[in-house]
Amino acid sequence: MVLGSLYAYLGVAIAVLFSGFGSAYGVGLAGKVSAGVITEDPKKFGQTLILTALPGTQGIYGFVIGMLMVFKFAPVAGPIPLEAGLRFLLAGIPVGIVGLFSAILQGKVAAAGIGIVAKRPEESAKGIVYAGLVETYSILAFIISFFLYSAITL
Asked: From CA 51, how far away is CA 143, in angstroms rounded?
């Protein structure tokens, strides 16, 4: 029975840590490029801020799934049953793994979009659209994780 609790906490950790790491890395990539653009033209801060912040959403998705899981199993007195623990683990995997990779890749696309802002600020929306396309897959993973989480009964 203790193994079920271990799997449940591992599911939370995968959801939160992997997506959080990917977001931190992606925001860092875009932030470095933004800092360079801002040193040349501080008026472009607002446009670069949007693109820099976009890769951070995957970390939010993972955090939400992780917190939902904790709120579901925290009130349970005693160990979590093995089957439920495995379900929590499986629920954390999509948002964690896809969040990790999509945030890093979105950071790279956002950095390229910041390059658009640097040279042609009137075209910044195109960079946001490109970065938003990568976001689609993290949203799909979030939805799958949410459906898996919703199916867990204790």
From this structure: 23
Distance CA 120, CA 57 (A): 26
Count structural domains, the chain: 1
Query: Domain containing 107 — which CATH number?
Result: 1.20.120.610
Vertex 121, ends 115 and 122: CA angle to 5°? 135
- 127-145 pLDDT, tens digit per residue, is 999 999 999 999 999 999 9
Q: Which domain holds residue 138?
A: 2-150
Instruction: Specify the DSSP class assigned to residue 78.
Output: S
The angle at the Cα of 22, spanning 19 to 24, to the nearest 5 degrees, equals 110
Token reading at 25:
């890395």
Nearest alpha-carbon partner for 74 in 86, 88, 92, 59: 88
d(CA 37, CA 15): 33
DSSP class of residue 14? I
Measured CA to CA, the distance from residue 151 to residue 84 in angstroms comes to 10
Distance CA 99, CA 135 (A): 9
* Per-residue pLDDT tens over the stretch 77-129: 889 999 999 999 999 999 999 999 999 999 999 999 999 999 999 999 999 99
